[in-house]
TrEMBL record, chain B:
<dbReference type="Pfam" id="PF12573">
    <property type="entry name" value="OxoDH_E1alpha_N"/>
</dbReference>
<feature type="domain" description="2-oxoisovalerate dehydrogenase E1 alpha subunit N-terminal">
    <location>
        <begin position="13"/>
        <end position="52"/>
    </location>
</feature>
<feature type="domain" description="Dehydrogenase E1 component">
    <location>
        <begin position="90"/>
        <end position="384"/>
    </location>
</feature>
<dbReference type="InterPro" id="IPR050771">
    <property type="entry name" value="Alpha-ketoacid_DH_E1_comp"/>
</dbReference>
<keyword id="KW-0560">Oxidoreductase</keyword>
<protein>
    <recommendedName>
        <fullName>2-oxoisovalerate dehydrogenase subunit alpha</fullName>
        <ecNumber>1.2.4.4</ecNumber>
    </recommendedName>
</protein>
<dbReference type="InterPro" id="IPR029061">
    <property type="entry name" value="THDP-binding"/>
</dbReference>
<dbReference type="InterPro" id="IPR022593">
    <property type="entry name" value="Oxoisoval_DH_suAlpha_N_dom"/>
</dbReference>
<dbReference type="InterPro" id="IPR001017">
    <property type="entry name" value="DH_E1"/>
</dbReference>
<comment type="function">
    <text>The branched-chain alpha-keto dehydrogenase complex catalyzes the overall conversion of alpha-keto acids to acyl-CoA and CO(2). It contains multiple copies of three enzymatic components: branched-chain alpha-keto acid decarboxylase (E1), lipoamide acyltransferase (E2) and lipoamide dehydrogenase (E3).</text>
</comment>
<comment type="similarity">
    <text>Belongs to the BCKDHA family.</text>
</comment>
<dbReference type="Pfam" id="PF00676">
    <property type="entry name" value="E1_dh"/>
</dbReference>
<keyword id="KW-0786">Thiamine pyrophosphate</keyword>
Length: 354, 433
């Protein structure tokens, strides 16, 4: 971690006053700031209006900006995204919320065949500058319909950007950058770390963001650029590629094992910051890829392939991949599914065994 | 299990699955006497600001204006001046002439695919006539009449159909999937009904911004079965969106008759009732009735009275597309027996009955339109036809996926261009090094 600039903040903002926020507060702050700056931003989704969303991400926004700009929607994700595509074609910049990532599937045709293809098929006449926010991931006893990590479905689609923050600081900066982006962006918010940096030890007391450098969020407007990874921790023994909740789990496990790992928070999956990945793997010669999503055809498969294609002659061990299992997310055995400290620890041991 | 063959439920009748079947298959004699065709002029016309429920009796009836004597009759007669009627007739005839030429162009190998709207020209043309020029239309692939009515250059249409280097869409879309923001014509999707909720969203945005423009969306009766249709109807009703939602019921979705979208149970216009919005059912082959119903819905939307669902009752006179052979699944007699006639002939006869047109003028116009279309195709052919190399440069394939090209697309673009240089070493393109 760089001493001077712990969160890779833009230099101009190092003097900005900051306050401690959890991830929900940071997201709410980003939405508030952007709605103030741009009258074309509207928010729609289930329960986002008067109530402020089931996770409170839009709390207070309807009161401040009015029902014309922040409103509840019918329980119809196809309609939410379809209407957002039409609004964007008109010239607005909608920020729809899909209440849980598990509910996003009814909107897939509108996202994949419509939003993602609008610029291409109309040769730029129509665009879809939509930012879809959706809480994702498990670890909250949500069962199979409130725990999934469907990011690989979207990284597979030409024309969509996929963004996943791991800290309140990045949740705000990335969301602002996503809203300003002229292409459709899906921001998956790791809901397990809304309130604190979960380290994978579910049987130990949970922490809040208080005192974590990523929980210190500057006031006002700033952006965390899309397509740029963050080096969470510099190191030389191996490279960890991860995002979202798994950043914090990896940090805890590697610290506990005393391994001098270089941990990279990808932040944006598409477009991927391949330069940072290559540079790190070339330095360490070992690579561990971690995600919570199911294993087969997960985004880890893409990462492993890229590392193999581009860094093969620097590799000193086979690339390791730690993921959730290829099952639906179970309820009672949630922690048996979750790629926790034991699974990660084993993979680290395999990588470092000689 | 073998012993236990007795059905559970005792004396209850066995359940039976009902699978709809159209009345007529190839070779069958067609008799449409079962199909109610109410006389023109008999339906009352409620005020545009009426409660939605006042329109509901009309969702199972049919608005018709042109009668058997080619006169415009009844309260729905829009009273259009002869100049407007002649313009509509011309746009309908031009649409048909264009379709005929492009169909032949496909058969001659100039493009991969084409779709005609024969028999449905009144719907697009008269509806476009009722809209303001800057209202946004979310079309299906059979609304070429909207572009033609709005004066979109034919040569641009042909360039798109040929996917040539003049194609404004850079050869990326299937022929006839036009897009023109400047002409208020939303980019056509090949995935059916997706444009329906989008139109509602566009209309909601217009209302959010306090604009005066409305949206109008089209869907076929077949794809009214899609979830997107339900999403659009729900959103339109919930937000009272300034949108006209059109269902073109042309009886056939490729080989599936309208029964597979529920037509045996009720009309498509009657879907409006369940959502609590205004609904109209109109003779889609009667240009005046289409205009009148469209104008009613457009005025209603523009007056903040919310959405209207219009069912345009018509018949798809040709195949679904150039890839389709309707003689394989329906009786050829259907087209001849269709009780609502040919929309172009009906409007022509009306103008003649008014003393504002003649057969000679019609013949002269048809000849002129054929030449007009021919000239546009000749002009477009200078930009190439599909498969003859005169397409956009290779690099454009990778552009517009995102606003800016990310590294992985730059790498893939370099690969595509390298492949081209290996295969055709002599070929140089703009930007080659």
């Amino acid at each position: 971690m760089s001493e001077k600039n712990p969160m890779n903040m833009p230099e101009t903002l190092t003097d900005a006053p900051a306050r401690e926020m959890n991830m929900i507060e940071a997201i709410n702050d980003a939405l508030d700031i952007m709605m103030e700056r741009d009258p074309d931003i509207v928010i729609l989704g289930e329960d986002v209006g008067y109530f402020g969303g089931v996770f409170r991400a839009t709390a207070g926004l309807q009161k401040k900006f009015g029902r014309n700009r922040v409103f509840d929607s019918p329980i119809n994700e196809c309609g939410i995204i379809g209407a957002a595509v039409g609004m964007a074609a008109y010239g607005l910049r909608p920020v729809p919320e899909i209440q849980f990532a598990d509910y996003i599937y009814p909107s897939l045709d509108q996202l994949i065949s419509e939003a993602a293809r609008m610029r291409y098929r109309s040769a730029g006449q129509f665009t879809a500058p939509i930012t879809v926010r959706s809480p994702f991931g498990g670890g909250i006893f949500g069962g199979q319909t409130h725990s999934q990590s469907p990011e690989a479905l979207f990284t597979h689609v030409a024309g969509i950007k996929t963004v996943i923050p791991a800290t309140p600081y990045d949740a705000k900066g990335l969301l602002i950058a996503a809203i300003e982006d002229n292409d459709p962006v899906i921001v998956f918010e790791p809901k397990r770390i809304y309130n604190g940096p979960f380290d994978g030890y579910y049987d130990k007391p949970s922490r809040t963001w208080k005192g974590h450098p990523g929980g210190l969020v500057p006031e006002g407007y700033y952006r965390t650029p899309l397509g740029k990874a963050r080096i969470v921790r510099e190191g030389s023994a191996l490279t960890v590629l991860a995002y979202g909740t798994m950043i914090h789990v990896a940090e805890a496990v590697l610290a506990e094992k005393g391994v001098d790992a270089e941990i990279i928070d990808l932040r944006t999956l598409v477009p991927l910051d391949i330069e940072t990945v290559e540079k790190s793997v070339e330095k360490t010669g070992k690579c561990l890829v971690i995600h919570e999503a199911t294993r087969t055809s997960g985004f880890g498969a893409e990462l492993v392939t890229l590392v193999q294609e581009r860094c093969f002659y620097h590799l000193e061990a086979p690339v390791e991949r730690v993921t959730g299992f290829d099952t639906p997310y179970p309820h009672s055995l949630e922690w048996a599914y979750f790629p926790g400290p034991v699974r990660i620890g084993e993979a680290v041991d395999r990588l470092l065994k000689d | 299990m073998a012993e236990n063959t007795a059905r559970k439920g005792g004396n209850l009748p066995p359940l039976e699955l009902y699978v709809p079947e159209p009345r007529y298959r190839p070779g069958d004699l067609v008799d449409y006497s079962h199909l109610p065709v109410p006389p023109a002029g008999q339906l009352s016309r409620p005020d545009e600001n009426c409660p939605a429920s006042d329109t509901w009796p009309m969702t199972t009836d049919m608005i018709r204006v042109l009668d058997e004597e080619d006169q415009a009759v009844g309260p729905w007669n829009p009273g259009l001046d002869p100049e407007t009627l002649r313009r509509m007739l011309r746009n309908m005839a031009l649409t048909r002439a264009f379709d005929d030429r492009m169909y032949r162009g496909q058969r001659q190998g100039k493009t991969s695919f084409y779709m005609k709207c024969t028999g449905e020209e009144a719907i697009s043309v008269a509806h476009a006539q009722a809209l303001a020029q800057d209202d946004m239309v979310f079309p299906t692939y059979r609304q070429q009449g909207v572009l033609i009515s709005r004066g979109y250059p034919l040569v641009e249409m042909v360039n798109q159909i040929y996917s040539n280097r003049g194609d404004a869409l850079k050869g990326r879309q299937l022929p006839i999937m036009y897009s023109s923001r400047d002409y208020g014509f939303f980019t056509i999707s090949g995935n059916l009904a997706t444009q329906f909720p989008q139109a509602v969203g566009w209309a909601m945005a217009s209302a959010i911004k306090g604009d005066t423009r409305i949206a109008s969306a089209f869907v076929g009766e077949g794809s009214s079965a899609e979830g997107d249709f339900h999403a659009a109807m729900t959103f339109a009703a919930v937000y009272n969106a300034p949108v006209v939602l059109n269902v073109v019921n042309n009886q056939w979705a490729i080989s599936s008759f309208s029964g597979f979208a529920g037509a045996e149970r009720t009309t498509f216009a009657a879907r409006a009732v369940g959502y609590g919005i205004a609904g109209l059912r109109v003779d889609g082959n009667d240009a005046l009735a289409v205009y009148a119903a469209s104008q009613w819905a457009v005025d209603r939307a523009r007056a903040n009275q919310g959405p209207t669902l219009i069912e345009h009752f018509t018949y798809r006179a040709e195949g679904h597309s150039t890839s389709d052979d309707p003689s394989a699944y329906r009786s050829a007699q259907e087209r001849e027996e269709w009780p609502l006639g040919d929309p172009i002939m009906r409007l022509k006869k009306h103008l003649i009955a008014l003393g504002e047109w003649s057969e000679e003028q019609q013949d002269a116009m048809d000849r002129e339109l054929v030449e007009h279309v021919k000239a546009a195709t000749k002009e477009a052919e200078k930009n190439g036809v599909l498969g003859h190399g005169l397409h956009h440069p290779f690099h454009t394939m990778f552009e517009d996926v995102f606003e800016e090209l990310p590294w992985h697309l730059e790498e893939q673009a370099a690969q595509a261009i390298r492949e081209r240089q290996i295969k055709w070493p002599e070929w140089k393109e703009e930007g080659d090094v």
